[in-house]
Design a protein that fits this description.
Layout lengths: L7 E5 L4 H18 L2 E6 L8 E7 L8 H11 L6 H12 L9 E6 L5 H13 L4 E7 L2 H13 L9 H16 L6 E6 L5 H8 L7 E6 L13 H7 L13 E5 L6 E7 L2 E5 L1 H19 L5 E5 L5 H9 L4 E3 L4 H8 L4 E5 L5 E5 L1 H13 L3 H14 L9 H14 L4 H5 L7 E7 L7 E3 L4 E4 L3 H9 L6 E6 L5 E7 L3 H24 L2
Helix pairs in contact: 1-2, 1-4, 6-14, 9-13, 12-13, 16-17
């Protein structure tokens, strides 16, 4: 069976082509329902090269609605003999014609060999429901999201937004807000041997008078996501292969489809990584200061998951920046961030963005035009320029790199100064295999266990034995296992707490099974 979660399904590419055909059917129906262009990105992100997947993009660049994930799962698991019947039932439920009312789908893919075959299968499915498919070819996931959004908000939505417009918009925005420098600054970017390298090759000449981008792991020799990329660096807590850097040199690592990025540097040959929590605090503090300087009165908040390091939460709160916690998953983060005038969200893995509400943008634009007080005008003008450097559709590794470099320059921050704003609490994450993950239920944004009774009490008791400790357990969304996350004042304590809680959870669940 193929199950769709978070708008995408991933597995070995050679068994996914039938699912690609059905995603073509599903997306065609979605396009007819919304009467707008929708998108499909063919990628498996940070997964190994033999894998592939399909991500459906809504008309405004968001991820597929939760209800439609259920439809995707239903279609993916329907046998061929019953497919027409299921489509007719879906057509009736959604009140949309399968043959009339032509829709449009915009398709992109990363650099995997299986990509063109997946696109062909998807296109066949869409065309069987009289839906037009526009293939933009190889692109990053954020570029596909951006193209879908720009196509639908354009004054001429019959035309597909051009990829060249993406590069033009963000390069010009970067040059404007970054400003002039006495010397050209260099950065190194580990592209995970993926599509991000191609995107940076196109972008680099457009901004070369301001910043020099050295592309590492560009796919010419290494394998996609092998010993490189954001997921590898985050997991191994070490630099990717293929990147050599001097002290304090600005380095980045992105994943295979370029929708997440992490910053790292070396000091006295020691590796230091600044993850999504650090990026979120950098963005939030920069924007908060500009809002205050311009006296805009906008609400700003940071949205985190339970995996955010406790020190980042404490730091933001000490700066009077509201922090809220939601269940794991970008769709939860994005939805909650929309409730602020300015919502900042990043997962620790480096995936995230900043959302500016329509109300916020109207106020920022108006004040930038009419503000007469010098200091206030400077602040609001800088904020307006910065908003144009953010991909409004989804987390974008490339535009986020430009935004980070801009903030570091404008605020005169070195990597060390940025990293030392707060010190992460040592942590340990474990995966514990159990017979049935469904017996464990969580509450409070997955930070506490509501079932089975008594398990959370045992965790609380164990946490009380350690210094500055917290620990939570959450069931995996795809495997029969639970993930244990523990933070403590020292690494030794974090390791011990995670191990103890993991053993307790295993024994607890085994005891429940023995009573059945």
């Amino acid at each position: 069976a193929v199950v769709s979660t978070q708008s995408t399904g991933r597995c070995k590419a050679d068994i996914l082509q039938p699912a690609a055909y059905r995603v073509g059917l599903l997306t065609a129906i979605r396009a007819k329902c919304v009467k707008a262009a929708v998108g499909v990105m063919v990628t498996a992100s940070h997964n190994p090269a033999p894998d592939n997947g399909l991500k459906v993009v809504e008309a405004q660049g968001e991820m597929l609605l939760a209800q439609w994930e259920l439809y995707a799962t239903q279609l993916a698991n329907t046998d061929s003999a019953s497919l027409v019947e299921v489509l007719q039932e879906l057509s009736k439920e959604l009140e949309v014609s399968l043959t009339g009312c032509k829709g449009r789908i915009i398709v992109g893919r990363d650099t995997r060999e299986s990509g063109p075959h997946m696109v062909t299968a998807l296109t066949d499915g869409a065309k069987n429901l009289q839906c037009k498919v526009h293939d933009v070819g190889v692109c990053t996931t954020p570029q596909l999201h951006w193209i879908v959004k720009q196509t639908n908000i354009s004054s001429q939505p019959s035309n597909i937004a051009a990829m060249s417009d993406y590069y033009k918009a963000f390069s010009e925005s970067f040059i404007h807000v970054y400003g002039k420098s006495e010397q050209i600054h260099s950065i190194k970017v580990d592209c995970a041997n993926g599509v991000g390298a191609e995107a940076l090759r196109t972008l680099s000449p457009l901004i070369s008078q301001h910043i020099n981008i050295v592309i590492c792991n560009d796919g010419s020799t290494g394998q996609l996501n092998e010993n490189c990329g954001a997921d590898f660096v985050k997991l191994m807590q070490n630099a990717p292969q293929g990147v050599e850097a001097g002290d304090m040199e600005h380095c980045y690592t992105i994943d295979g489809d370029a929708d997440r990025s992490l910053f790292f540097y070396f000091q006295d040959h020691k590796f230091h990584m600044l993850d999504g929590d650090k990026i979120a605090t950098l963005f939030a503090e920069f924007i908060s200061n500009l809002i205050q300087e311009a006296e805009l009165g906008l609400s700003l908040g940071v949205v985190q998951t339970a995996y955010a390091n406790g020190s980042s939460t404490s730091y933001l709160q000490s700066r009077s920046i509201p922090v809220v916690c939601v269940p794991t998953g970008v769709k939860h983060l994005h939805k909650r961030a929309e409730q602020f005038d300015v919502g900042v969200y990043f997962e620790a893995n480096g995936h995230g963005t900043v959302l500016f509400s329509d109300t916020a943008m109207e106020l920022i634009n108006a004040r930038a035009e009419c503000e007469t007080r010098k200091a206030h005008k400077a602040a609001v003008t800088r904020l307006l320029a910065f908003t144009k450097l953010i991909n409004p559709a989804v987390g974008d590794a490339i535009t986020n790199i430009l935004a980070i470099e801009t903030i570091l320059k404008l605020c005169k921050l070195s990597p060390q100064t940025w990293g030392n704003k707060y010190q992460d609490l040592p942590y340990r994450q474990l995966k514990i295999s159990i017979r049935d993950r469904d017996i464990i239920k969580t509450t409070d944004a997955e930070r506490r266990i509501s079932a089975p009774p008594g398990m959370q009490d045992k965790i609380d008791e164990m946490v009380s034995d350690y210094t500055n400790a917290r620990c939570f357990v959450r069931p995996s969304g795809t495997e029969n296992c639970v993930r244990v996350h523990a933070e403590c004042a020292t690494q030794r304590e974090a390791d011990a707490l995670a191990t103890a809680v993991g053993a307790m959870v295993f024994d607890f669940t085994e005891s429940l099974h023995s009573k059945l």
